Amino acid sequence: MQFDDQGRVNKSKKRAVFNQPEAKNRVELFRHLPQYEHGSQLTDLESKFLELDSMHPAVYKVGVQYLAGDVTGGNARCIAMLRAFQEVINDYSTPPGKTLVRDLTAKISSYVSFLIECRPLSMSMGNAIRFQKSRIAKLPLTLSETEAKAALCNDIDRFINEKIILADKVIVRHAATKVRDGDVLLTYGSSCVVEMILLYAHELGKQFRVVVVDSRPKHEGQALLRRLLAKGLSCTYTHINAVSYIMHEVTRVFLGASSVLSNGTTYSRVGTACVAMVAHAFRVPVLICCEAYKFHERVQLDSICSNELGDSNDIARVPGRPDVNSMDNRTNEKNLQFLNLMYDATPSEYVSMIITDYGMIPPTSVPVIVREYRREYLLI
Amino acid sequence: EVPKALLPVANRPVLSYVLEQLELSNIKDLIVVVEGADAALRVGGWISAAYVDRLHVEVATVPEDVGTAGALRAIAHHLTAKDVLVVSGDLVSDVPPGAVTAAHRRHDAVVTAMICSVPVSGLSEAGSSGAKDKTKKPGRYNIIGMDPTKQFLLHIATGAELEKDTRIRKSILRAVGQMDIRADLMDAHMYAFNRSVLQEVLDQKDKFQSLKQDVLPYLVRSQLKSEILINGAPQGQQAKENGNDKVSYRILANASTPSFHELYALGPNGSAPVRRTHKCCVYIASNSKYCVRLNSIQAFMDINRDVIGEANHLSGYNFSAQNNIIHPSAELGSKTTVGPHCMLGEGSQMGDKCSVKRSVIGRHCRIGSNVKVVNSVVMNHVTIGDGCSIQGSVICSNAQLQERVALKDCQVLSLSTSVFLSLSSNEYL
């Protein structure tokens, strides 16, 4: 839904589970994206925790965790959501006079709209929900309720195991062959797949060092850095402003992705496009590691038409440095608008190869996988 | 006489505020535990009359002096859900219990306590509002230590221990790095517990009597050296040793910012968790919410005043144009003034030339003429003779005051007392 369409926004507000006041000072170009005042969102949602009968507590918990930023990252969010849906299915009982298929689909849709209110869905989550709904729709009518519930929970387990966990293992095996002794690997932000690759390659005994590039406001690279150091890898830590200075030492760049689109564009954490472009300029190969369930048939040419806006206070303040606060409290000035983008789109010409669980493919082969294999997993 | 839970605040039993709040939050199945058999009977009777359709309440009786922990032990077999919300019956607040449970669930905590600011008029039992003596009675003090993000509870000490020095666990301080210790917050007695942990602690530690003084500090002290098993399995490990579960667990764990518990639990070099920890969370009631416990006579008067005054959304009554509540069947004599922030109960009669300021008058009172009632609480069926002056006092049910009695800062207890003389400051009858 485009958020500059006032009529539809008002309609959706009426259906909303909790009221979020919209941010007042928004950048004109990004008016079609939702942006809310972040201060009171969490307290509003928390105070409604018990009041809404219609919301399952597991889904509520996941929503609160998304809103508070406790769970980030495509895979983690997807797993958390699917586990919550498993609990929903386990606790579900068909009301009299309704069929399981339709009622459960309606319930899941309402939970999904609640999760969207907490935080807009990532593409991985969207694909998982589509899978889930198609599995519910394909349930044979002859099954009893308990059998149907068991089958659905089984399907969710299989999805997580095959599409996420096993896929990660395959990607790690493939990617580890691309790491040679003496390599300097660069990674940006914190991607769980890239972390697994680095740890696996280290276990295999390869000698390499890692450069972790990080950026404000989230500093996601610091958590990755801590875990890598704990395992004994030699790491360098730098911020994205220095990426062109460090790129001449780097031999390969490994990046994670939130999604890969049909024209080969990688949709990932903001800053990835910058890193990929600098790497391309230095003729360093860029490898994107992404599970196939995150592929999407959409085509996106820029980072504007679909994105996510974060809290503007995060960029106005530096956490832990109360003295660096000249931008603080200026969020309501008329001449000044804050823009905190969360995602960006990396064009396919900067990407050398995409490593997926279906193998190592060039970016132009993504629509092939979407076409050929999407049908297959809907049929399992 | 009247059990504490049924003391009237703005002519409603104080327990009704708690029940109202729980009803608003859609908690329909409650267990009310009362100490003492006749108190239980009266509470049970009142609840079934007032809440017969709206809530499903079970009243359980426990013997006196068994403490809150003992009360929970007695009803342990009734508790079946995954988490238990324990609320003290004398809490008047409009903080939604949902917020406490949301904080509890979000962190998968073992206990979440609600903390509120100390009410402005102070916690001391002694002293009217003009007292200059500010000695703080240690019995009411709380010292609360939290982490910088104000989500986790690191240290809690209640009044009795404060005569000596406060001891803080060094391991907790080292793990978290920075602890904020505050003395201006107090425990509001609304807790959310993980049921299995609560039952385990109550079973193992027989000597624990009170939740607030024994169980909660025990859980907070041992949060980094957890001796309890959560859900029957040590925390941090999956029930199945299946590799896939471990991987997905690790993905989820890596995705979130680790709290200091998780960091502490990791072995040297950040390997697999070697120490068991559990989390004690805290929810701080925001300043815009009203949250006070009825634990002293001063608090009783303050709450009465506040519920009619600033926090009047709690009382649920409609205020008249002059900002007071006068029941339609109350009769006022001529030239009688009832000021703002006052309440006059059903069937009360006031004589001529009376003045009532910032007070609560209960039902069926007979008040003579020329009576001044200021800043006081008068309960039901009280007879006040002519020419009395009552200031800052609490007059309990069925009391009789003769003519020209002046009371200042007193509490007239027990039924059927007749007061003949003037009393002042802090006398009890």
Automatic annotation (TrEMBL), chain A:
Highest taxon of source: Eukaryota
Name of the molecule in the record: Nagb/rpia/coa transferase-like superfamily protein
Originating organism: Citrus sinensis (Sweet orange)
UniProt lineage: Eukaryota, Viridiplantae, Streptophyta, Embryophyta, Tracheophyta
TrEMBL record, chain B:
UniProt-listed InterPro entries: eIF2B_gamma, LbH_EIF2B3/5, NTP_transferase_dom, Nucleotide-diphossugar_trans
UniProtKB keywords: Cytoplasm, Initiation factor, Protein biosynthesis
Protein location: Cytoplasm, Cytosol
Domain EIF2B subunit epsilon/gamma LbH, residue spans: 327-418
Chain ranges of the Nucleotidyl transferase domain: 2-127
The organism's place on the tree of life at top rank: Eukaryota
Record-level GO cellular component terms: cytosol
Molecular function in Gene Ontology: translation initiation factor activity
Main location: cytoplasm
SUBUNIT field: Component of the translation initiation factor 2B (eIF2B) complex which is a heterodecamer of two sets of five different subunits: alpha, beta, gamma, delta and epsilon. Subunits alpha, beta and delta comprise a regulatory subcomplex and subunits epsilon and gamma comprise a catalytic subcomplex. Within the complex, the hexameric regulatory complex resides at the center, with the two heterodimeric catalytic subcomplexes bound on opposite sides.
Function: Acts as a component of the translation initiation factor 2B (eIF2B) complex, which catalyzes the exchange of GDP for GTP on the eukaryotic initiation factor 2 (eIF2) complex gamma subunit. Its guanine nucleotide exchange factor activity is repressed when bound to eIF2 complex phosphorylated on the alpha subunit, thereby limiting the amount of methionyl-initiator methionine tRNA available to the ribosome and consequently global translation is repressed.
Family: Belongs to the eIF-2B gamma/epsilon subunits family.
Name of protein: Translation initiation factor eIF2B subunit gamma
Organism: Citrus sinensis
